[in-house]
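Q: Hi! First time doing this. I have a protein sequence and I read that you can turn it into a structure. Is that right? Here it is:
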Amino acid sequence: MTLRFLKPGGWLECHEFEMTMVNADDGSNTPPNNLCVEWSGFMRDGCMAGGVNPQCVSHFGEYLRNAGFIDIHKTLYRWPWCPWSDDPKEKEIGRMNAINQDASSMSLGLLTKNLGWSRERVEVYLTGVKKALLDTNLHTYVPVFIWWARKPEILEPNK
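A: Yes, that's right. Below is the predicted 3D structure, encoded as structure tokens:
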């Protein structure tokens, strides 16, 4: 649909995150199965149970190519959930994330409607998750993809 509304030679840019909490590969002693990683797994399962693939962003290049876009590019960024990073830009992102983080609104519907949890179970579970998300000793982040691609000057007949 986007291709139809772009002028020939016009560019599309997409910023999307993947619902997967990842432990940073920075030499930190972040436990591999920490609560942040576990929570993101439940969130991913809740999305999948609702018919949504929360990890489709890594396939956007294929989707863009199949739609008819050319000159497809991707950049991958780390999006820390709290200000643990030594990188000033990532630290600021983590600081803003910590202020705006609302695990409850993100989790309640997915875990109750799609995974069958009770509201009480979600609330008790999220008590620990919220603490973990703000723990600067846990070096976790969400992968953020930025894709950009160009509409060709002349489209192939079936695009």
